Amino acid sequence: VTEARLQECLAQFIRSIQSFDSKYDAGRAQVANDSVNFPNFTAQENQGKNLFLSPPVFDATSTRTSGGDGCNGCHGAPEFDIAPNSGNNGIIGSLAGGQDQANTRAPSLRDLANISGTPNGPMMHTGVITTLQAAIGHYGNINANPNNARLDPKLKPNGIGQKLNFNAQEVNALIAFLRTLTGKNIYTDPKWSNPFK
Question: Which residue(s) pair with 163 in the sheet?
Answer without folding.
Answer: 63, 141
